[in-house]
Specification:
heterotrimer, A alpha+beta (about 325), B mainly alpha (about 220), C mainly alpha (about 550), A: alpha+beta, Immunoglobulin-like, Cytochrome Bc1 Complex, Chain D, domain 2, five-stranded mixed sheet, elongated, C: about 550 residues, mainly alpha, Cytochrome C Oxidase, Chain A, 2 strands
Chain lengths: ~325, ~220, ~550
């Protein structure tokens, strides 16, 4: 499944790659032309007007204003055009489709830990089917890393304390480099891996290998009980704590009067930094689980919470 | 224009040019100081925006009486400095010396009050680090507030100290020599510096002490 | 420009000059003469250049093979950190301002010295103190955070002498601020009679703008490094998410300084080119006022684009869009300059002395480097290219192909004025061509490497990247030879070079109106300026040639 590197053109393996390459090659043409123009003019002037040449030097100081206006204003529409084009593509790159397959990534010095929603785990490798949009929800355990797949033309810093996302839809099967692209210490250069994009048949075979693991949400439920969360966050509990059915995506009023949406970041902060935002009407009683829960378990618990009686929201 | 008898450094054409250059140089220096403090103010602003309730709670633990007194002390000292500059212009040596010493004394008073404040905060375990303590729920953010508090007021205090030392030296020079009678530019510039230190405090005080204070 | 001189008694003997006004080490180390201070800096930054260059050489050798093997990863990480810190803060940022700027600013404006000569000397000591701190940090074991010191790696995880290195940069930064302050006041307050703003040489305009950036941006670096160092010492958590902090705050603060810093590095070089082209084309600079305004625009706009280093950092995509469009806009004034330099050649009388070769090299390489910045300003493309070798190629084209070539061009142009000697012209031309060729071979393949996806800061890499890396290393060895040549023949010229005379290039500018080397107080008679700058006459130059050929 090894795709040969196609020097000097990198291969395009995602839905986003052709768009990026179009801009790149257009810029190459424009900038190449500009460079050639400047070099050609200089060369021409140097030959024609070298000291001792016969060319006339009369009237060598034409008024500069028309030229200045010209070469100041001419680049503007070109630059604006390229800017819009690239910004539009960038906007598309930041909006994963709603039906994208969600995969969690935890980065740590110096490896990539992947968790599929069916509970399957991978280290430094990611197996995905061709043609399906994939959204990575990523976080770092320590320093800033970066999930870079050159063939997909996607890259996103993976930051501690905050979830970042990256999405792509692979367009051809193959084996593609994964590089860490944010310096993270000693083995930054070795923190790589492979993305395996598989045909539907191969992917089905891969899925069938090994024991079907517990889904991520089921693993999360186990952690939820093991760490004692259900001790407070249950209807029969003596301690008054918010009930968590359907919490994901719900608006949550806070004690300072603001209202936030319970997204991945909110759930994570509630577990690790419970006093950062306190739900209105509740006391600040929740202990922190910092250093008591790993990033992977945290991802599993959040997956579990997402699965709890989640009501399909019809309002925008 | 300018008296050729007034001495000036060799690189300048005359005393006027020297005075203009020195004054302009001081303004440029103050501009760099604004950017220097600005970085810290930006960090403070970012975190205050992120944690408004926590910062309000932490701010209530600052010692308002001390801070307010210090504000008055600095404002009076700036007024005193302005009078000192006036005395220098009018070539009144004794008045200049006394007013400089008074300014320095007020600056020293500011530092003393600040020292008391720091000592009290230290005993209340508000110094960030291993012994920091702040009641939940805002412990971490309060530590960040006090880190920024000690950093900003600490850097400010260093600037005050430098000012006090320089003012004291100038006061002594005014007392023992007539250097400033011949050329009072330096007093002028030190005045600019002192006013700047005061203005920084005028911004610091409400930002840090007056976050959501009621009664 | 034409000058008339006021009647003042001649107070200096003709052969006395700033170089022989005192021979002891003390007279050099305690000098307040801006010209000697310029030379002190010249020696220091040359030493730092070779230290940083040595690190680069080791890196390029390591990169000959995909699996590396020459140095450990730990050492490689320290090498690229060292290379960045030294080259940015101890070579590029000082280079032209502290060497050529210190030497030339008072001369070009007709002053006896800068406004605050003792502060000028203090600047050099601050620079040296900072440099020694950094060298100590390197010798004591090194730092592996990269010159960018990103948190939380630098503030919480990195081992090594981060504090010492940060302290060194902090201290040297105050030297920079003092130099900038000195130049601003000098240029505002000490110009010769008749020297209005629009009669100033463009070199002064660029030094002035650079000085504004120095005094406004460097304090932000100081506080950023302080915050990072205090976090390292006290672990408070301002950049640590586990305690509610934000690692991105560091990036914003750091790049708020470091982007304007790159304009500190390139603007003075542009000023040099604006002096060289008119002289060697014997023609007034085309569009003088536009070039001056473009300079100021670059300085202002340069403060507004820092976020283009953070497009994939998880900053808001809307912020990214604002930074992207501003980054496109900041390219325009640079383009204006390139077009004006080119237009100056039209109907000129062009000769190809060494400084002019460097000027041409600058224009070509800066154009390529600047245009590749557009790729990085374009959001979607930057996602692919960020943190790859494309970025490395981009900034080396500007900083080495641009700034260093400008420095070398200026050094060769003003060497006769500084030393009173001429250097060996054919060797100098050879060096210039060698540097140009070696540079392109080193860095052009890196554009391709980046587009293919090779990330930066990698001591080992995927095997398919090897061919381009080998080409790059081959270029680096040629470049190294190119840099050693000027060291040799310029030093040689100090003893054996032909005496230059006051104005070997027949250049305009007040600095050429005084002896080479200049007297201690620069001018025997204080100049008065009555004409516009760059009063060259290409027609006359051609006529003169015709006349001599008819004799």
């Amino acid at each position: 499944m090894n795709n040969p590197p196609s020097f000097p053109f990198p291969e395009q393996a995602s839905n986003l790659a052709p768009g990026v390459d179009w801009i790149f090659y257009t810029l190459t043409a424009l900038c190449g032309a500009m460079t050639l123009l400047v070099v050609a003019l200089i060369t021409f002037f140097c030959i024609r007007y070298r000291h001792g040449s016969r060319a006339s030097r009369a009237n060598g100081n034409p008024p500069s204003l028309p030229w200045e206006a010209g070469w100041t204003l001419l680049p503007v529409p070109i630059f604006l055009g390229v800017f819009f084009w690239a910004a539009q593509t960038y906007f598309r790159m930041s909006r994963p489709p709603p039906d994208a397959m969600e995969i969690n990534v935890v980065a740590k010095q110096w490896m990539w830990k992947i968790q599929h929603s069916d509970g399957r785990r991978e280290i430094n490798e990611l197996h995905i089917p061709v043609g399906r949009a994939v959204k990575l929800v990523m976080i770092s355990q320590d320093v800033i890393h970066d999930f870079y797949v050159p063939a997909f033309r996607t890259k996103q810093d993976v930051v501690p304390g905050r979830y970042t996302t990256e999405w792509f839809a692979p367009t051809k099967p193959g084996k593609f480099h994964l590089f860490c692209a944010q310096y993270c210490g000693l083995d930054h250069a070795k923190m790589g891996g492979w993305i395996y994009v598989m045909s539907p048949l191969d992917y089905a075979q891969w899925l069938a290998q090994g024991q079907p693991p517990n889904s991520l949400a089921a693993q999360g439920q186990r952690v939820f009980h093991t760490l004692g969360c259900s001790g407070c966050h249950a209807a029969a509990s003596k301690i008054r704590a918010p009930l968590l059915d359907g919490i994901y995506g719900k608006p949550v009023p806070l004690s300072d009067g603001t209202i936030v949406t319970a997204d991945d970041q909110y759930l994570r902060d509630s577990i690790l930094l419970p006093n950062k935002q306190i739900a209105a009407g509740y006391e600040a009683l929740m202990p922190t689980f910092q250093n008591r829960i790993s990033e992977e378990d945290l991802t599993a618990v959040i997956a579990y919470l997402k699965s709890l009686g989640s009501v399909e929201r019809n309002d925008p | 224009m300018s008296d050729p008898a007034i001495a000036h450094a060799a690189q300048f054409d005359d005393a006027t040019q020297q005075r203009e250059a020195a004054t302009f140089g001081m303004w440029v220096f103050l501009a760099t100081e604004i950017l220097f403090f600005g970085g810290m103010f930006l960090g403070y602003a970012a975190y205050r925006r992120a944690y408004p309730a926590a910062f309000a709670a932490a701010s209530r633990h600052t010692l308002l009486a001390f801070g307010a007194t210090n504000t008055a002390v600095l404002l009076i000292s700036s007024a005193m400095m302005a009078f000192a500059v006036r005395a220098a212009r009018e070539k009144r040596r004794a008045a200049l010396a006394w007013r400089l010493f008074a300014t320095a004394a007020l600056g020293l008073l500011f530092l003393g009050i600040k020292g008391f404040e720091y000592a009290r905060e230290f005993s209340e375990h508000l110094l960030p680090g291993a012994s920091f303590h702040f009641d939940p729920p805002y412990t971490n953010q309060a530590e960040m507030f006090f880190y920024l508090y000690f950093l900003m007021t600490g850097v400010h205090a260093i600037h005050v100290t430098i000012g006090v030392v320089l003012i004291a030296i100038f006061g002594s020079r005014a007392w023992h020599t007539d250097a400033f009678a011949r050329n009072d530019t330096a007093v002028d510039l030190l005045g600019l510096y002192w006013h700047f230190v005061d203005i920084v405090w005028v911004f610091l005080f409400p930002l840090i002490y007056l976050v959501e204070r009621h009664s | 420009m034409n000058t008339t001189t006021r009647e003042l008694p001649i107070t200096l003997e003709p052969r006395a000059n700033y170089l022989n006004a005192g021979h002891s080490i003390w007279s050099w180390l305690m000098t307040t003469d801006h010209k000697r201070i310029g030379l002190l800096y010249m020696v220091s930054i040359t030493l730092f250049f070779f230290v940083g260059g040595l690190a680069a050489a080791l890196m390029r050798l390591e990169l000959l093979r995909p699996q590396g093997g020459l140095v450990t990863s730990a050492l490689y990480n320290k090498l690229f950190t060292m290379h960045g810190v030294i080259m940015v803060w101890f070579f590029l940022i000082p280079s032209i301002p502290t060497v050529l700027g210190n030497f030339l600013v008072p001369l070009m404006i007709g002053a006896r010295d800068v406004a605050f000569p003792r502060l000028n000397l203090a600047s050099w000591y601050l620079f040296m103190a900072g440099g020694l701190c950094v060298l100590w940090a390197i010798i004591a074991g090194g730092v592996d955070t990269g010159w960018t010191f990103y948190t939380p790696y630098s503030s919480t995880y990195a081992n090594g002498h981060v504090l010492a290195m940060a302290a060194g940069i902090f201290i040297a930064g105050f030297g920079s601020i003092a130099t900038g302050l000195n130049f601003i006041v000098t240029i505002h307050k000490m110009r010769a009679p008749g020297l209005t703003w629009f009669r100033l040489p463009l070199f002064i305009w660029t030094i002035y703008t650079t000085s504004l950036i120095l005094v406004l941006a460097t304090p932000v670096l100081a506080i950023t490094l302080t915050l990072m160092a205090l976090e390292r010492l006290f672990g408070v958590g301002i950049f640590n998410p586990a305690m509610g902090g934000d690692p991105l705050l560091f990036q914003h603060l750091f790049w708020f300084y470091s982007h304007p810093a790159v304009y500190i590095m390139i603007l003075p070089s542009m000023g040099v080119i604006s002096e060289l082209i008119p002289c060697f084309a014997r023609k007034s600079l085309f569009g003088y006022k536009f070039v001056a305004y473009a300079t100021i625009s670059i300085g202002v706009l340069g403060f507004l684009v820092w976020g283009h280093h953070m497009f994939v950092s998880s900053q808001s995509i809307y912020a990214g869009m604002v930074f992207s469009i501003l980054s496109f806009m900041v390219a325009i004034p640079s383009a204006i300059k390139v077009f004006n330099w080119t237009a100056t050649l039209y109907k000129g009388s062009i000769t190809f002395h060494t400084p002019m070769l460097y000027a041409f090299g600058f224009i070509g390489l800066f154009t390529i480097g600047g245009l590749t910045g557009l790729f990085l300003a374009a959001l979607a493309v930057d996602v692919h290219l960020h943190d790859t070798y494309f970025v490395i190629a981009h900034f080396h084209y500007i900083m080495v192909g641009g700034a260093v070539m400008g420095y070398l061009g200026g050094l060769h142009f003003w060497w006769p004025k500084i030393t009173g000697r001429l250097y060996c012209e054919w060797l100098a031309k050879l060096a210039a061509v060698t540097i140009f060729a070696g540079f392109n071979l080193t860095f052009f393949p890196q554009f391709i490497l980046g587009f293919l996806g090779m990330p930066r800061r990698y001591p080992v890499y995927a095997p398919e990247f090897q061919v381009l890396n080998v080409l790059s290393t081959a270029g680096a060895s040629i470049l190294a030879i190119g840099y050693l040549l000027p060291l040799a023949y310029l030093l040689w010229s100090l003893r054996h070079g032909k005496p230059a005379g006051a104005n070997p290039w027949q250049a305009t500018g007040l600095e050429w109106k005084t002896a080479s080397p200049p007297p201690r107080d620069n001018f025997t008679n204080a100049p008065v300026v009555t004409e516009e700058p760059y009063q060259y006459d290409a027609e006359a130059a051609e006529l003169a040639l015709e006349e001599t050929s008819h004799v």
